[in-house]
Amino acid sequence: MKIVNSIIKGEPVIHDEKYKIHNPADTREIVSEYSPATLDDVKYAFDVASEAFGSWSSKTPHERAKILYRAANIVEDGSEDLARLITREMGKTISESKAEVERVSWILRFYASLILRINGYTIPSQFKGGLILTIREPLGVVSVITPWNFPIAIPAWKIVPAIATGNTVVFKPASLAPTIAYRFVEILHRAGLPPGVVNLVIGSGEKIGREMITNKHVEAVSFTGSTNTGLEINRIAGSLDRYVRLQMELGGKNATIVTEDAPLSEAVEIIVKGAFAIAGQACTATSRVLVHIDLYGKLVEALKTRIDSMKVGNGLDPSTDMGPLASMDQKKKVLSYIEIGKNEGAKLVYGGYALESGDYAYGYYVKPTLFIDCEPRHRIFQEEIFGPVLCVTPYSSIDEAIELANSVKYGLTLGIVSRDLSKIMRIAQGAKTGIVRVNRQTVGVEFQAPFGGVKASGNDIYKEQGIEALDFYTRVKTIYMHW
Ligand code: NDP
Q1: Same domain? 388 vs 412
Q2: Tens-place pLDDT, residues 5-15
Q3: Which of the following is catalytic: 89, 211, 219, 249?
Q4: 345 is in which domain, residue-wise?
Q5: Catalytic-residue membership of 374
Q6: Cα gap 130→84, rounded to integer Å
Q7: Going by CA atoms, what residue is nearest to atom 9 of ligand 1?
């Protein structure tokens, strides 16, 4: 068992109060023990981050890049260990964890190289001997709040561009996954990050969340989590007597549209990967499939057969296809949605229950579940379940498919499986989502491309990841030159 704690100014912060993190695949195993940060700790973390800003922001991009490259090497060298820790802490399969860790080293190198060429541009002046130029400057102290489902990649894709551009950070990870967050901050320090640049505060959103937004040093908040928490943060920030820049990446209810010409086996693979990766606990997970009526019966049968071949189990076993849910709360929520679906009249054709005997006795396992004949009036069609529950709905025309896809409050990702370019383009253009994935599963976006949702999936002001992430973490200054 590992002892973890908040890290402020590079130093551990330890209190008597302790909480344990249990392995969701086998709750008898205690992964770590941590002592939560107090409100005073959080205030101190912001003071420290504010104090560190001057010297960190005045370092050259090359000096900052060196640290990020070193961190990338440390992540790569320890990737096996880090991946095992993710699996033990929140349950995803070991191959999913390895992919997540690999993404972190890519993110570190990507932003290390990007900041060497971070630029503004020049604009001609209307006056002779004049030139206008823009430069990009860091904001100051950034507050980073993250969920547990990508417990190192999401912190990395926020913290790395933040510090690469010269900001300092106070970072609050999800209470369910503080151990891997702690390891990441430790790695940044081992790579040479000066104390105070990234400060980790482990504690519940309920207790310390408000301070993460209202503290006088906060210039910007980058948040990923549920739409309700996002809206709450938006309200709190809106009630301040100053402006705080907000980046909100929230929930999803993503559909994959399958056209009548789609190759059946490819469609099934794409849907299953999208729906059941991380046991469906991804904001980009496929939770609705919209299938042309001509292919409906065949696709449903093929999906049942494919889902039946999936092995559910402890994610550390390399033969496992789907791990447990991350917590008892997650398990209860998923089971309650299954009951809602049945009561609403959607047809349950596969799964629909918890796995609780034998090897499953101590974990939060739910059988992958398939509902068919789902309709927009059903709550399981509309609401984010965040679990291994897939709803299938038939459609008759492309217009109807687009309307069905857009008929939810969320707008993160839309998948299309088709061989027909004109249908693909009609759907892609009609989609009210931030991302469209053609002949790919809805999960698994790439770090070098901009990422973000619309409608209830995000505040849609600043994108995350890609070059676009730098827009959030910097502000433009306009300089008028004259000689
Ligand atoms: P939550 O919104 O419950 O929590 C997210 C983070 O916010 C946690 O660190 C949490 O702390 C913190 N928090 C909770 N309440 C407050 C508050 N009042 N003020 C400030 N911070 C607070 O989401 P989950 O952790 O359950 O994550 C799942 C959600 O995240 C899903 O809706 C999913 O779709 C979304 N998500 C979105 C992604 C995207 O990029 N669009 C990517 C991944 C997930 P604590 O853990 O202590 O409660």
Answers
A1: yes
A2: 999 999 999 99
A3: 249
A4: 254-438
A5: no
A6: 58
A7: 174
User: Does ligand 1 lie within 6 Å of residue 474's CB atom?
Assistant: no
252 C-beta closer than 6 A to ligand 1: yes
Do 374 and 476 fall within a single domain?
no
In a domain, 446, yes or no: no
What does the pLDDT look like over 100-112, one tens digit per residue?
999 999 999 999 9
**Probe residue for ligand 1, chosen from 226, 236, 246 as the CB with the greatest number of ligand atoms within 8 Å:** 226
Does the residue 124 lie in any domain? yes
Kind and range of the H or E element at 119? Answer: none
- 34 CA → ligand 1 middle, Å: 19
Query: What's phi and psi for 249, nearest 5 deg?
Result: -115, 115
* Cα 279 to averaged position of ligand 1 atoms, centre (Å): 17
Same domain, 72 and 106: yes
Asked whether 209 lines ligand 1 (CB < 6 A), one says: yes
| CATH number, domain containing residue 262 | 3.40.309.10
Distance separating alpha carbons of residues 275 and 21, to the nearest angstrom: 27
Residue with tokens 């379940």: 385
Checking if the pLDDT of 230 tops 80, the result is: yes
Average per-residue pLDDT for the chain: 98
| Strand order, beta sheet including 286-292 | 347-350, 369-372, 389-395, 286-292, 254-258, 413-417, 435-438
Asked whether 230 and 150 are in contact (CB, 8 A), the reply is no
Ligand 1 pocket, residue 204 CB under 6 Å: yes
Give me the number of domains the chain comprises.
2
Q: What percent of the chain has pLDDT over 70?
A: 100
Q: Are residues 478 and 382 in the same domain?
A: no
Residue whose CA is closest, atom 30 of ligand 1? 225
- CB of residue 415 inside a 6 A radius of ligand 1: no
Q: Which of 89, 283, 384, 391 is catalytic?
A: 283
- In this structure, the residue with its CA closest to atom 48 of ligand 1 is 205
pLDDT of residue 119: 86
State pLDDT tens for residues 395-430: 999 999 999 999 999 999 999 999 999 999 999 999
How many whole angstroms separate alpha carbon 140 and alpha carbon 242?
Answer: 15
Q: Which amino acid is at 373?
A: D
The residue nearest atom 4 of ligand 1, judged by CA position, is 225
Give yes or no: residues 334 and 474 share one domain. no
Each residue of 38-92: pLDDT tens digit?
999 999 999 999 999 999 999 999 999 999 999 999 999 999 999 999 999 999 9
Ligand 1 centre to CA of 154 (Å) is: 11
- Ligand 1 atom closest to Cα of residue 204: 47
- Structural contact between residues 133 and 483, judged by C-beta atoms closer than 8 angstroms: no
Position 179, amino acid: T
DSSP classification of residue 352: -
Residue 452 lies in a domain: no
Residue 316 has pLDDT above 90, yes or no: yes
Report whether residue 225 contacts ligand 1, using a CB cutoff of 6 Å: yes
* Across 92-103, average pLDDT: 98
- The answer on 368 and 295 residing in a single domain is yes
275 and 231 part of one domain: no
Same domain, residue pair 163 and 214: yes
Has residue 447 been placed in a domain?
no
